[in-house]
Amino acid sequence: MVSGAGMNNMIGALIEGLADEAPNDPYLETVGIDLLAASRSYATGKKEDLVLSFYLAIRSLLREYAFLQERLKKTESSKMLQATEFASLGKS
User: Fold this and answer.
1) What is the three-class DSSP state of 1?
2) CA-CA distance, 87 to 40, in Å (whole number)?
3) How far apart are CA 57 and CA 30, in angstroms?
4) Domain coordinates of the chain in residue numbers?
5) pTM across the whole model
6) How far is the C-alpha of 69 from the C-alpha of 65, rounded, in Å?
7) What share of the chain is helix, strand, coil (3-state, %, to 5)?
């Protein structure tokens, strides 16, 4: 069985591992920073800071996901329009 301190260290290390796995992307930089802060907060027992750091990390992920989805839709729409225009040129 793992002691309370051992469990805290293990969970803190898992959270830090998540920060290490965050993509090295400027758009997601805050996610890694917030996860590292969450890891430190968990290790020091500052649960309120932990919750805030996780909230900020997840919020950043959701914002970037929405932003990238919107960019993807615009790109796909543009490609579809180009394909349609190309196809209509071939029929002329």
Assistant:
1) coil
2) 57
3) 7
4) 4-91
5) 0.56
6) 6
7) 90, 0, 10
